[in-house]
Specification:
alpha/beta
């Protein structure tokens, strides 16, 4: 069986990360893989979009695609108006969090300020049920060196009171990403993990651009991303 990320024994996965790290791309891609896989620990899958501060690349923009795959989408009060920027959350956000038969992926806001929204739902994020990850892109200005990455992780933990246990390498250069880009990010994230005691959960690669076999040997956990969130016109 193909391995994507390290096995999780928790029902709720919180995905954090700086703006531009690709955390929403990861959240959407992982939700789709989870829902479409033949073997699942939970009969239902849901994605909660708590990134209400950032107007770009929101997972709820792919509501139709996600719901067609059987994934419940929760978050903004405005289900049909994705351009609405009022930071209003629907009361239904609690529905999948309270459903013991549902695997929940939480797309949290970028950096420590965006992650503050998590505090509204802290009672659900108990250590026995919740795994917290941070997506790192070594090519982003704020996380391009180890000190910056460590400070970023610490700021999120301080703002939310949650412990980030897993690091997800999503080092990319948009459509210029190559296998060497990902390998560079792998080495970087290994260094961050070594200094902070965290675990590298997986290495992401853009499936339309990089072949899985070109990354053989760097990791046992390679996570394909579908580039669902980036319109091609942005690269023209």
């Amino acid at each position: 069986m193909t391995a994507y990320i390290r096995p999780l024994d928790k029902r709720i996965l919180i995905v954090t990360g700086h703006y531009g790290s690709g955390k929403t791309e990861f959240a959407v891609s992982y939700a789709l893989l989870t829902a479409r896989s033949g073997v699942r620990a939970y009969p239902k899958t849901a994605l909660i979009d708590l990134d209400i501060a950032n107007p770009y690349f929101r997972s709820r923009e792919r509501r139709d695609m996600l719901e067609a795959a059987g994934i419940g989408v929760y978050g903004s009060l405005y289900k049909t108006e994705i351009t609405a920027e009022l930071p209003a959350l629907s009361a239904t956000v609690r529905t999948p969090l309270e459903d013991e038969d549902c695997f929940v992926i939480v797309d949290a806001g970028g950096n420590d300020s965006g992650a503050l929204v998590l505090n509204q739902f802290k009672k659900y994020f108990t250590p026995d049920k919740t795994a917290v990850s941070a997506v790192l892109n070594a090519n982003r200005p704020q996380t391009h060196d180890v000190d910056g990455a460590v400070q970023h992780l610490s700021a999120i933990e301080h703002a939310t009171g949650l412990h980030i246990e897993g690091i997800i390498n999503n080092t990319h250069l948009l459509r210029e990403t190559t296998p060497d880009t990902i390998k560079k990010g792998h080495a970087f994230c290994e260094t961050v993990c070594g200094q902070t005691g965290r675990t590298l959960w997986c290495d992401c690669y853009p499936q339309p651009l990089v072949a899985r076999e070109d990354l053989t040997g760097i990791s046992d956990y390679l996570m394909p991303l579908g580039l669902y969130m980036r319109p091609t016109w942005l690269d023209r």
